[in-house]
Design brief:
Diaminopimelate Epimerase, Chain A, domain 1, 18-stranded mixed β-sheet, 4 helices, 16% helix
């Protein structure tokens, strides 16, 4: 199987075109391929392009634990770069259909920047989902390891739990992320962001990604956290998201439609030997 590997600010994905695979991968095989020691190593697999009547291209996104994600901002930039590299698109805008909705993408000159219209952020508990009565989930209390936190929940096609804090760290993300990801409040599990407001044009994030764990960057997390910061009236409509892996530029409309802009970097092309999957069902 031929895999194309890219990273988006340190968040790495493998693209597997169905035409380059002799079959679909099982959950166990996805885990093996994504394993850092036993496989090629990645934060997930992008399966596409797939035929669709809804958009120019269809895409499925798999986490390294074998589960399927609805949407990934970094994954969409990476997949856009793959389409550009393989000459399936030009610099004209195109659309991609994901289980989390249809997005509009554009690859800039030389593929130095990729812009994705990610869709509308919602804080509606039924859409995210979050258990309990229908409401916007804004500044609610939750206890983790004996400490009280305020959290905001949001969806941009996939679920997010954002904790605004005065100080954030990777250590704290490793502490609270695994607990919140599988918390009973979130029936579909959730991505987790620790959010620090720097000023009205900049925020900082530490991220625990559903199905992947601690990650250096996340596009959908950046969109959700930026929307939360905007909902708090703590930032303006255009801002930069700072993560350990780098920066993304975000624009937020009055109706909370989000546009994300940032890079995607090609790592290489890999031919996975079937021996690597031997004994994996």
């Amino acid at each position: 199987m031929k895999f194309f590997k890219y990273h988006a600010l340190g968040n790495d994905y493998l693209v597997l075109n169905p035409e380059d695979a002799n079959r679909e991968l099982s959950e166990a095989e996805i885990r093996r391929v994504c394993h850092r020691n036993l496989g090629l190593g990645s934060d997930g697999i992008l399966w596409g392009p797939l035929p669709t009547n809804e958009a120019d291209f269809g895409l499925r996104i798999f986490n390294p634990d074998g589960s399927e994600a609805e949407k990934s901002g970094n994954g969409l930039r990476i997949f856009s770069r793959y389409l550009w590299d393989t000459k399936l698109i030009s610099e004209k805008p195109f659309t991609i259909s994901t289980p989390g909705g249809i997005v509009r993408c554009e690859v800039g000159p030389g593929a130095r920047e990729i812009v994705v219209e990610m869709g509308k952020v919602s804080f509606d508990s039924e859409k995210i989902p979050v258990v309990g009565p229908k409401r916007e989930v804004l500044g609610e209390s939750i206890e983790i390891n004996g400490r009280d936190y305020k959290f905001y929940a949001a969806t941009i096609g996939n679920p997010h739990c954002v904790l605004p804090l005065e100080e954030i760290s990777s250590l704290l993300a490793h502490e609270v992320g695994p607990i919140l990801e599988v918390h009973s409040l979130f029936p579909h599990r959730t991505n987790v962001q620790l959010l620090k407001i720097m000023d009205r044009a900049n925020i900082q994030l530490e991220i625990w990604e559903r199905g992947a764990g601690y990650t250096l960057a996340s596009g959908s997390s950046s969109c959700a956290a930026a929307a939360v910061a905007r909902k708090m009236n703590a930032v303006d409509s255009s801002l930069t998201v700072h993560m350990p892996g780098g920066k993304l530029d975000i624009r937020i409309s009055d109706s909370f439609d989000i546009t994300m802009a940032g890079p995607a970097t090609k790592v290489g092309i890999f031919d996975l030997d079937e021996e690597a999957l031997k004994g994996v069902s």
